[in-house]
Each structure stands twice: as structure tokens, then as C-alpha cells.
Amino acid sequence: MSYFSYLQCSKCGKEYSKDEPHNLCECGGPLLVRYDLHSIKENVDKNLFKTREKGLFRFKELLPIEDEKNIVSLGEGDTPILKADSLGEKIGAENLYIKDEGLNPTGTFKSRGAAVGVSKAKELGIKTIAMPTAGNAGGAWSAYSAKAGIELIVAMPKDAPDLAKKEAFIYGSRTYLVKGLISDAGKIIAKGVKKYGWFDAATLKEPYRIEGKKTMGLELAEYFNWEFPDAILYPTGGGVGIIGIWKAFKELKELGWIKDKIPKLIAVQAEGCNPIVKAFNENSEASEFYTGANTIAGGIRVPKALGDFIVLDAVRQSKGTAIEVKDSEIIESLNLLAKTEGLFVAPEGATLVAAADKLIKNGFLKSTDKIVLLNTGCGLKYANLVEEELQVLEIDADI
Amino acid sequence: MSYFSYLQCSKCGKEYSKDEPHNLCECGGPLLVRYDLHSIKENVDKNLFKTREKGLFRFKELLPIEDEKNIVSLGEGDTPILKADSLGEKIGAENLYIKDEGLNPTGTFKSRGAAVGVSKAKELGIKTIAMPTAGNAGGAWSAYSAKAGIELIVAMPKDAPDLAKKEAFIYGSRTYLVKGLISDAGKIIAKGVKKYGWFDAATLKEPYRIEGKKTMGLELAEYFNWEFPDAILYPTGGGVGIIGIWKAFKELKELGWIKDKIPKLIAVQAEGCNPIVKAFNENSEASEFYTGANTIAGGIRVPKALGDFIVLDAVRQSKGTAIEVKDSEIIESLNLLAKTEGLFVAPEGATLVAAADKLIKNGFLKSTDKIVLLNTGCGLKYANLVEEELQVLEIDADI
Question: Is the predicted pLDDT of residue B268 greater than 90, yes or no?
């Protein structure tokens, strides 16, 4: 089923065997999954995927799980791709689409990474996983670990969304709140990993989460009849989604399954935490730690991403860009999206509306471009951002 | 595409034309959609549905939308059906499945009814819809109405879940909170409907919501290779889901598409609001208004359902039963489901775990029966039911 071949360092190219647990390369670089694409090309028909039961595991040849019985699934993937004509009209985009990752289990795209990551952990016989999280990944990994019967230890910022805390708790993870940022939570987890030998599943420290995120790219390519759209906007914190989508593009290109168009990958950040945007504008290969990170979009409040150099490389190679938006624009976008398209999205996803608007106005994107906004989560997790004012009626009132 | 033929009263059998808006029959009975099943049998292959793009509208021949351009979709339907072996082991059910409706847009099965209801309203040229809601239907109809550009007026109990209020508000519905139950909200809406000529979309007062819910039954039949499972447990408030699933069963049977097994339909209610259970036990044709309704499962806090007689008939005809569970059992079930299956569900859905446990223990269900728990919503909307206790760490802490 899987054509998983070996692991390879994204920095120095060193190869690792696929048969035991690995984290980072000796050189500190994140490891990537490599497939025997040559054999896939010979043996697999790309039209096969559509005939299988829905969900991201229908792309099993391009995923690292080798024995189907290890798959831990809650129904993730194959999220809707919706044409957004009303919103498109407001911002002057004639071919605007929203891929709504909020319909994944636990309400965010994090389920994709967790489904593949936890399945592979199960396959490798891992008993305890530990990870820092901004909130949503912790919820997702908690759900899949519960289903898999794997113990999960999670540390998240004390000011993570309430719902993320409740999720980790109800799924039975051992959960800690840290008086700091996700980077601080990461340091505490790293110490625990060293002390107790837990498997470290921090972003990019395990190689399989990317493969789950990659399926967003596979689904997009398939949906648009094996041609990528002109531009994909993505709210960028750790940036694994961009890395995954770019990996999908490169694998599909090598397989000869897609037409030649390169999708512009656009990293969107918040003004209050924009290390990737800064690095992009300064032509740097990597980002610098962003001090004083502050935005309502907690999922992209990542001061320094481990894979920043891969994200920047993907954005540049794809002829994309990096752009920031203000928190006030996020709130406006959140409201606009709900009222025009009937979508109540996460603030991270809402950033994309403001960003697309700017990029059309400044000419970076054409009004006729096929543009995909990749909304990463559902708004239900961010209810505090909605301040409703509703009229209260007596039982016998008239309206 | 649609084989919609006419509307027919569920009480007196009177027929109505499909070409203009209708609410209840003159006799007060809810109207049901009738199809030209004979022509479907002749012209449609049941294996066709699987080849179409996912979502409930792939069953278009058995839905009332006549022109595809009127479809208002946010990606609803085709929710996961998950084998629940860990939970099954706990309660002694070897073939236990959970259909997780929480992965619909707006987080509940209400999206199915809203997708079909709002699409049909658009097709009929309706400009303003009004409805009472316990909360979740208001959220769903608000989202679809926003997408359709239809005005929605919603009234819900003042103590409806916060998230339902925020949803109605952010989607731009005109939203009222009523100091009473859904039945009180219904009276206020009914007065407004009379005064302003809005289209009344209260449960069963418009005929199309059932058709959306029906697709749960179609999906189940298709999933189990065109054979219904032995039992379907359903949290019953208004009961439209049971009515819809039973309608699916009867239509599929008439089409000759399914094997003979009749699925036992099991209506599950809360001890604090159990009018259907009472009526079932007393062998009554209809339920009595339940005074003092009180349960944490707000979606099934319906003191008197308009379609109670159809629900009771379906439960009896299917050789099912009606059963109540305590609020404390709901909370236990919620936790059990999260920890064993990685599913954080709505309290309405959690009732089913306790109910299945009782019905296996008392012998009504066999341990080998193929049992489906139809979870109607995601737990994210009921975060207040989770009281997390988490350890807070300083930045430099060790764990």
C-alpha cells in the first residue's frame, strides 16, 4: 500500500531508515519522508483515489503508514472546497475558493497531521508521545492518541484557547499550562523528553505530521482536475501546511500527474507576530525569533518556526509572497466571511480574506486568478471573538 | 434531476402542489415530500451515488431541489461512520458504530435540514424565513441563509448555548432571546409570521428539513452495502432525524434497493424531558406537553414535538423502543466516548452511549447486533460541560 522508502534530512540530505522512530537529523534539520515515486508512477493510476472511501487515507500510496491496521482515523480530510462568489465580489476575485478545514475532527486542519502522526507512532510501537502546542494541535493529537490508546503529554500556553484546554483534558491527555508562549512550552517538553524518553512530536521534530498536511495539496490538485490553482493563501505559524502543500506539489510533479502551473504559495501572518514576513522581505534564508508576539490569532502566534527556512524556500520557489494583516482586519474579515459565505472561521483563517484583498488591490494577484483561501479551523473554537448583542423578549412578547 | 412529485399531509393524506411555498396541511398535519419512485426505479442505479462528489446533494434524485443552481451548500453530509471497538468492548457491543454528525458545517446534523430547507426556500423565491430554535438549528439556518442571501429571523430560549447565540449573530440573522422554552419562542415566531408574512421554518412546519435529515438514512444504507443496521439510536427532541431515517427506509424499500432487515429505531431522551418515552410506554399515539423540562442536553429539551405521532409510529413499526437517561449518565458517557474513541460529542449524542449500555444489559439489543449511535453534534458547542483541572507551570519548570 505505502511506497514509503526512507527518511531524509531537509538540511544536509542525510538518509535514515523508515523502520524505527526518528526525530531531527544529527545536524538539527527536520526529516522528510521520501517515497519510491518511480514505482508509484509505474503502478498507480491517479484516478484511483477518487474511487476510494473518502478521507485522507485514500492517498495511502503517498502516505507513510505501511500496514492498514495501524490507521487511526476519525474521519479527517476531504474537507469541502467552496466557491466563494459573494465574498469574491466584495474583494474583486472572480475565482475565489475556500477550503474549509474546520470540518475536520476537533475542528481544525491539525487533525490531518495528528491522524498520520499518531497512526505512524502506533505502527512504530511508540507508547508515549509529548508535544508543545498553541492549542489546536494538542486537541487533535489528544483525540487521536485516545483512539489509539497511546499516552499523550501536552504543554500549552496558559492563555491558549479554553476549548483547546478542555479538549486535551476530556480526551485524557496529561496536560500542562505554561506561563509563556509555545516556545516556552516546547522547552519544558524537550526537557521531559530527554528525562523520560517520550517520543517528541513537536512541529517538524517528527517527520509524519507534514505528510498529513500534504494531503491538503493532494486534494486541491485532484479537485482542480490535477492542476494547482494560481495561488494558495495560508495562515502561517509553524508553517507545516505550506511545507506539506509544497511537498505535494513537488511529488505530483515528479510523478507527472499534474499540469505545469506552479501555485503561488502565500504565507499570511499577523502584524503582531510576523517573523516569516520580515525574513521574506529582508531576503533572509531563515527568520529571527519574534519578541513580544501578540495577536488574537493564537494558532499563528509562533515567534520562530523550526521549519522557517523550508517555508521561505517554498514561498520563494513558488513565486509567492508573505504578507501580514492587523488584528482589526482579522475581526472584520471574520464578520465578512460569516455574512457573505455562511462560514464562521478561526481568526487564522480570517487573515486570508484581508490578505487576498490587499494582494488583489496591489496587483500581486489578478482578479481572474484561481485563488484558494485555506481556512485552517472552525470559529466555534474562538467564540470569545464574537460579542453578540441580542434583544431579550418576555414569553408573551410581539416582534 | 429531482423526482419530486407532490406534497402530502402525514395526517389526512391531502395532496399539495410542489410549486409554491406550503407549511402545514389545513388539518394541521405536517406535509411530506413524495417522489415518483416508480420512475427512479426505472431510471436510476443506486450505485451511481457513490461516483458523485461527496455531500448529501449527491442523492439529488431523492431530494426536492429541482434546479441545481438553487443548491446552497457548505459541504454538509457524508459524515464519518466510525467503528467504535474500544467503546464497544466497554458496553459489550461487538458491532458498534458511531455516525459523527459533528463534522457537518456549524457542527451539528442541523446543517442537513438547513441545506435542503434553505435551498428549497431559494428555489421557491422566499425572501424571509423565521424560526424558533433550541439553538443549533438557528446556527445552521443562519449560516445557509447568509450564503443564500435570504433574511432569517430566529428566536431561541435565553438559556440556549452561548455558541448558538454567537452563531446566529455573526451570520447576521435577526436574533431574539426568549425568557422561556423553545415552545415559547415558537409562539412568538408564529405571531410574527402571521403579522409579517415571513415563511415559517419551525420544525415540521416546512416540509423540506426532513428531506435533509433523510440523507442520514441514505448514507447509512449505502455504507452497510444497502442493508440497514440492526438498530439506530437517536437523541430525540423534535424527532425529525427519526422521521427522516424512517422515510429513507421506506423509500429505499419501495425502490427495492435494500435488503429486508428493518432497523430498530430507538428514541433516546433525557429523564428531565421524556414526553416520547412516556407516550411510548403508555401506548399513546401522541405525546403530552412535558412541563418543567430540564436537561443539560438542550437539543432534546423539547416538551412537545409537532411530529410526535410520526416518531412514535416509526419507533413502533420498526420494532424499536424509547428510553431515557439521566443527566449524570450523559456526562459519564461524554467522558467515556472521548477517552475510548477520541470523540468529543454533544450531550445529545452522549445520551446514546448510556442508552445502548442499558439496552444491551436488559437484552433488548444483542451484543452481536450491528448498532449505530447517531451523534448529532460536536462537543465544542458544549464546552461548559467540561470542567478541566490543569496544572500551571512556570516558564522554567520541569515535569
Answer: yes
> Nearest CA to CA, how far is B348 from chain A (Å)?
17
- Residues in chain B closer than 8 A to A72 (CB atoms): 342
Dist CA B348 CA B299 (whole Å) = 6
Q: For residue B259, which of B222, B227, B229, B230 has the smallest C-alpha distance?
A: B227
SS3 (DSSP) at B327 = helix
Strand B31-35 to strand B4-9: parallel, antiparallel, or no bridges (unpaired)?
antiparallel
- Beta strand B15-16 with B4-9: parallel, antiparallel or unpaired? antiparallel
* Fold of the CATH domain A81-107+209-385: Rossmann fold (3.40.50)
With beta carbons less than 8 A apart as the criterion, state whether A131 and A152 touch.
yes
* Phi, psi angles (nearest 5°) of residue B2: -85, 145
pLDDT at B77: 98
Residue owning grid cell 429541482: B66
Q: How far is residue A148's CA from residue B10's CA, in Å, rounded to a whole number?
A: 46
Cβ A251 vs Cβ A242: under 8 Å: no
**Per the CB < 8 Å rule, is A146 touching B341?**
yes
Contacts of A386 in chain B (CB under 8 A): 166, 169-170
ipTM reported for the complex surpasses 0.90: yes
pLDDT (average), residues B303-329: 96
Q: Sheet with B321-325: list strands edge to edge.
A: B81-83, B95-100, B370-375, B231-235, B264-270, B321-325
- Return all residues near A358 (Cβ < 8 A) that are at least 6 apart: A323, A325
Contact between B143 and A392 using a beta-carbon 8 Å cutoff: no
A339-388 tens-digit pLDDT: 999 999 999 999 999 999 999 999 999 999 999 999 999 999 998 999 99
Q: Are strands B231-235 and B264-270 parallel, antiparallel or unpaired?
A: parallel
* Closest-CA distance of chain A to residue B294, Å: 17
Q: According to the CATH classification, is domain B81-107+210-385 in 3.40.50.1100?
A: yes
Query: Does the beta-carbon distance from A390 to B171 stay under 8 Å?
Result: no
Rounded-to-10 torsion of CA A277, A188, B341, A73: 40
Judge: A390–B165 Cβ closer than 8 Å, yes or no: yes
Provide the 8-state DSSP code for A102: G
Q: Is B94 within 8 Å of B368 (Cβ atoms)?
A: yes
Instruction: Measure in Å the smallest separation between the Cα of A59 and chain B Cα atoms.
Output: 16
- pLDDT of A181: 86
Which cell numbers in the block locate residue B371? Answer: 448498532
Q: How far is CA B379 from CA A105, A164, B16, B376, in A?
A: 11, 12, 40, 10
Of residues B128, B123, B167, B125, the one with CA closest to residue B150: B128
Q: B100 vs A75: CB contact, 8 Å cut-off? A: yes
